[in-house]
Amino acid sequence: MLTARRPSFEELRQSWSGILAVGLPASLTNLIVPLTSALITGIVARFGKEAVAALSVCARIDLFAIMAVVALSTVIGPFVGQNIGAREIGRVRTGVVLGQRFSLLYGLGISLLLAIAARWIAPLFSDNTLVIQHIILYLSVAPIGYAARGIYALGNTVLNVMNEPLTASLVTLIQMFGVYLPMAFLGANWFGLIGAFGAIPLAYTVGGTVSYLLVRRKLARLESPADTPDLVSEVVR
To answer: Would you say the pTM of this structure is higher than 0.70?
Structure first.
């Protein structure tokens, strides 16, 4: 894995091109999420500073709550890549399917736990009655999308490893700008703050479903005897 040999310019060009082909779309994806969050904050700000404070608190609760799924979506990349390189496509499918099942069950479990414990969690972050009410509202609605969010995160990693970074970025773009932002805007206008929060599980359900179907199709192609050699070679490159 380590060598003191100086690579040729052509070897460097091929290596850099391969890294950038995945890295640039992945970087774009990482920019989409904070940009969307900033715009959502603007929508929520219409309901007062207490709503913004609650959203800020809940964003941190979200990160803690889905930490296990985020970790899984990080480590599954090397697992999938290594087994594709070894032509162990069956292991790839098994790993991905088990990861999806874990994400689904974990997401459902943690969302139920937060919904039940919301009234005790909220006062830990604020003594403002309105902020507490908004936190409880968020934790009763938004975590419903955790299960799909885990499948989406898992799928994006797998698609990147399978040499489909643009597809992964497109899923995020559709999820955030095609569903989350417009539905949060409309939901806030029609139903108030609960409408803005309700756009979160809706967006992740769409993103998770699309990601699941794309990964499933890609795995089916990898398992096809006619396509496997070409697809494996493409991914390994």
So the answer is: yes
